[in-house]
Write a structure and sequence with these properties.
- With about 160 residues, the chain is an all-alpha fold.
- It contains eight helices and no strands.
- It is flat, with a radius of gyration of 28 Å.
- It starts with a helix and ends with a helix.
Amino acid sequence: MKATTGRLFNHLDRREIERDIGAELQFHLDLLTQEYLQRSMSLEEARDAALKQFGNVEQIKDRCVEISKRRHPLVMALKCLLSILFVTGAMVRIVGWDFHISRCGDLLMAVSILSWALLCVRLNPSRFFPQHDTSFTLKLTDQDSFAVYDQKKRSPVERVISR
């Protein structure tokens, strides 16, 4: 029993998933490198060509980790439980004859909706919080790009005060 639960929760461990997916991606990169080596390229050229064709390995690995965590049996069971909790809350709300009982139905529905949202954000954060693009740099020292002062050399704060 302990080994079974250990295996179930081990699949949710991001490091374990990353190791497995990293090994799989490395295998595919090695196959592409072998293919380029058969085309009489040098080892360095073959690796570069394989990486260029394959794309951003880290981005692919992160996406694969997200997908594998989303399809885990425990996650699917939790989603099913939250759906049942929502339906139960809706039924209690509809059938509830007393004010306090109908409020319990509202509470069940709210807990299930918020838990579902938290689960979605937790399993797929890049969908809700996009990664920042670090290739674009904003230069704040360029005075021609924006005008802070007007013709009288007043700052925006001085302009508001003088009105």
